[in-house]
Amino acid sequence: MGFSFLIYFALIILIPIWAQLKVKGAYKKYSQVPSSSHMRGAEVARRILDTNGLYDVTVEETRGHLTDHYDPRSKTVRLSSENYHGHSVAAAAIAAHEVGHAIQDQVDYAPLRIRHSLVPVANLGSNFSWILIIIGMLASLSNLVLLGIIFMAAAVVFQLVTLPVEFNASNRAMDQVVSLGIIRNDEEKETRKVLDAAALTYVAAAAVAVLELLRLVLIYTGMQRSE
């Protein structure tokens, strides 16, 4: 049992680290490769937005490293400074990906709507699930552990729903940068590598969340047997 737990904890620690290394490695490599269009990330984002009639969506610079995101509340694509001003393949890929979320918002993409609706529940689950589980385990209250597991399950569902949202945004990004001539044919492979590496972080997060949920379910069933 002890060896199994060591393997388990090694997995939940190593999987996210491996994903982050892949992202950083791909970004570092392709942020040094200029795109053939020489468009800044901000220009890439604006070009795709305007082509899709999203004139009301703004593009802003934000601080931090790889802090790029789309804010559906303010209809804003925010790009980190290096991608906002960068002319690289990586900057173009990331800018296009974030615009992919804006396009999802425009077409009312169902998984994106589901993810947005799950945000309050997922935040609640992330914040309170462990408190309930730890108290339940210390006090041998299996019902409290079960309640914590239910809260955690909501957070896991959020992680799983995030996967199709992110992969779809990347696919939309590829379609846009290719059809608009922002990248050449020989740059498609490099662009896809950046997008795939970024997606790995979401896959890793979902995998770790599912593993942890399964472990807690096993703990709960063990408590039930001993009662």
From TrEMBL:
Pfam families xrefs:
Zn_peptidase_2
Where does the sequence pass through the membrane? 6-23, 144-165, 199-220
Q: Which UniProt keywords are listed?
A: Membrane, Transmembrane, Transmembrane helix
Protein origin, superkingdom: Bacteria
User: InterPro entries, alphabetically?
Assistant: Zn_peptidase_2
PANTHER family in UniProt: MEMBRANE PROTEASE YUGP-RELATED
Q: What is the name listed in the Swiss-Prot or TrEMBL entry for this protein?
A: Zinc metallopeptidase
Q: Give the source lineage, highest ranks first.
A: Bacteria, Bacillati, Bacillota, Bacilli, Bacillales
Quote the gene name from the UniProt entry.
Answer: yugP
